[in-house]
Amino acid sequence: MRQLNRIASASYLFLDAVLEAVRYPRGAHVLVACMPKSASTSLTNAIAAYPGFRKVALAAAYGSREQELCQIRLSRYNHRGPYVAQQHLRNSSFTQSLIEQYRLAPIVLVRDLSDVVLSIRDHLHRESRESPIAIFTPEHLRQSPAELEETIVRIAMPWYLSFYVGWRSDRRAHIVAYEDLVRDPQSAIEAILRFSGIEPQEQYMPRVLEAFRGPNNRINVGVSGRGRLLGSGAAAALGHLLDQYRECDADPYFRRMRSALSATVSTT
Asked: What is the CATH classification number for the domain harbouring 9?
């Protein structure tokens, strides 16, 4: 089996090199690099519903594994038409080299971290403890809601901040806020398609929006502002994490989170 996998992998790389040499058409390649619990499944399904697109996996594995790009999968799908892929992927120089080589359109999906903490809390109880960003144990699930929120901030939010700080200065990335996406999905998706080199056609948008609002998109509540209910301990811990990136104090995303935390602290 391993030998067959090696042969298949080599064939993907070889065929991709040949097609690249003869300048075979690629199509749009949309990479949704996303924070977990940011409506990324909804967004990816919506783009996949646009005519010509399909949804593919560009990571070698999922579950608790870091969702790095797999070059073999990139080669496999490189000349098979437009696609969209969704991955919880931090930025790095190697990732940037793959984005450039395979001409990916990076869509970076972010969400207010106060809201994310509550969404993760609900997810842990309703779905699964498995995650590529932190290890959650059965003992964590026995904590009170306030204690679990603070635990989530301390062990999971560093990944989120690393994700955002790594992508924020990448001029080739198109950053989309969860709050803007759920408020006006059509405008957000149309902007993403244009960024990817496709002029959106109005007649296709109803099916795209239907896919965005579909029943299997794993949105817990689908509203912003829940973070105002965050416990005082978790809010203070999150504020301390933001303090570690003082160079981002003027960043609009950080300013929105500071404002949300101020509202949280004032009501607890």
From this structure: 3.40.50.300
